[in-house]
Amino acid sequence: MIQKRYKLKFSEENLQESVAYILVSKFNIQPNILRAEVRDDGGVMVLEMKGRQEDIDASVVYLSDAGISIKAFDKQILKDADRCTDCGACISICPTKCFTPDPETWEVVLNYDKCIACGACLNACPFHALTLPL
Ligand code: SF4
Ligand code: SF4
User: Fold this and answer.
1) In this predicted structure, what is the pLDDT of residue 15?
2) What superfamily does domain 2-72 belong to in CATH?
3) Ligand 1 atom closest to Cα of residue 99
4) What are the DSSP E strand ranges found in 40-85?
């Protein structure tokens, strides 16, 4: 089993596609929708797929053939050190515990390797120090 993240772009026409259902029923993939945004011209989704490499590859081909733009997503959260006040509001909100206070300096340290790009911390930061470009 491997795990991969993708960014999917939907047009208005294929916005209603039930991607998660198709991936489970047709390809035996465990999907996890990390972020989803509806836009004027369609929608964007960050999707994590867990499954066998060949099943993930087949899913990518299927979605692409269905007119959904799909690309590997490797972006992570960005922290603007000038804006961050180390207030700690982001610490408890992160599901993968990316933020930890340094016991010596009390600086909030961000472990980029743990970030799954879920976006949960974006609205938690009162100083708008966190960004995650889609
Ligand atoms: S995007 Fe999600 S996983 Fe990444 S730091 Fe923010 S809350 Fe944690
Ligand atoms: S919530 Fe924002 S300002 Fe507070 S520690 Fe986290 S990134 Fe820094």
Assistant:
1) 65
2) ACT domain (3.30.70.260)
3) 5
4) 42-51, 69-72, 78-79
